[in-house]
Amino acid sequence: MRMKSIFLAALMVMAFSMTASAATSMSVNGSTTVLPIMQMAVEAYMKANPDVSISVSGGGSGNGIKSIIDGTTDIAMASRFMKNSEVKQAAEKGVYPVPFAVGIDALVPIVHPSNGISGLTGAQLKDIYMGKVTNWKDVGGDDKPIVVISRDTSSGTYETWEGKIMNKERVFAGALLQASNGAVVQAVSKNKYAIGYIGYGYLDKSTKALTVDGIEGNPETASSGKYPVSRFLYVFTNNWPTGETAKFIMYLINPKQGQVHAKAAGYVPLY
After folding, report:
1. Distance separating the N- and C-terminal Cα atoms of the chain
2. Coil, strand or helix at 14
3. Do residues 212 and 110 lie in contact, with contact meaning Cβ atoms separated by under 8 Å?
4. How far lies 183's CA from each of 36, 40, 180, 198, in Å?
5. Using CA atoms, how far apart are residues 37 and 32, in angstroms rounded to an integer?
6. Which of 3, 191, 234, 240 is least enclosed, having the fewest CB within 10 Å?
7. What is the DSSP letter of 135?
């Protein structure tokens, strides 16, 4: 009888634990640009709230938004706003995404540190990414072919580049596509004649940032709007968030909490 009571008590504890875990679990998916902010925020939030479990994965803004529409994630990260086609898809499924800005970013063109070029115009960047300019000598550099590296089309970073630099023209088929900001950094750092573009938070000594139209991309120029390739970073929820999801969203946008992580990750806080 005693063993039976112990067994029943154990089952009750397990059931309670499973219920508590389900009630305090969240999933986050999407933009690799927003990812550094999210990783810092999640780590700090779970440390302060041990009963909360949050899983985070990248994969691009398009995949994050698709996941929120499909109902396979609680929070979608995106380095761009939703497209009209995505809003329509969501509405057709009874999903009403709510956006929250979590930071401001400068999208920066990068080259190998040995490259003598220090800056390009928006028009030169467009010509390079359309495949019209194929040699560094044509923009003031060495007589070497340009290796063009771009993000894949599911990326919000690609969407921003396409809108602000390409003026809606497509990146040419000869560009080498990468699935993340980190992959672009790695590819450019290993090729003396490559060019790529990344979110400001991914800049490090392995690559060199170029100015655009003579303006350096940094937190000051991005927040003022002076830098021509700046953007807001977002998270989306399905309808207005409630419960633990709402608490976490409020944490992300709080100037003394999540916005501290945005700054630490190399981005521009909202306030």
Report:
1. 63
2. helix
3. no
4. 14, 20, 5, 10
5. 10
6. 3
7. B
Question: What is the Cα–Cα distance from 267 to 57, expressed in whole angstroms?
Answer: 19
- Place 219 in a pLDDT band, splitting at 50, 70 and 90: confident
Q: What is the pTM of this model?
A: 0.80
Exposed/middle/buried for 65, CB within 10 Å: 0-12, 13-18, 19+? Answer: buried
Report which residue type is found at 178: Q
| Separation of alpha carbons 14 and 264, rounded Å | 39
Number of other CB atoms surrounding residue 85 within 10 Å: 8
Distance between CA atoms of residues 189 and 172, nearest Å: 22
User: Alpha-carbon distance 179 to 182, whole Å?
Assistant: 8
Interatomic CA distance for residues 119 and 122, integer angstroms: 10
Strand stretches in the chain, DSSP E: 25-30, 53-57, 75-78, 97-111, 119-120, 147-151, 176-178, 194-199, 208-209, 211-212, 230-238
Structure tokens at 23: 């009630």
C-beta of residue 106 within 8 angstroms of C-beta of residue 227? yes
Domains of the chain: 26-103+231-264 (3.40.190.10), 105-224 (3.40.190.10)
- Predicted pLDDT of residue 153: 86
Structure tokens at 95: 């999903």
Rounded CA gap, 32 and 265, in Å? 12
Least Cα distance to 107 among 260, 232, 269, 271 occurs for 232
From residue 117, alpha-carbon distances to 32, 134, 151, 260 in Å are 27, 15, 22, 34
- Please report the DSSP string for 223-245 in residue order: HHT-STTEEEEEEEEESS--HHH
Q: Which residue type is seen at 40?
A: M
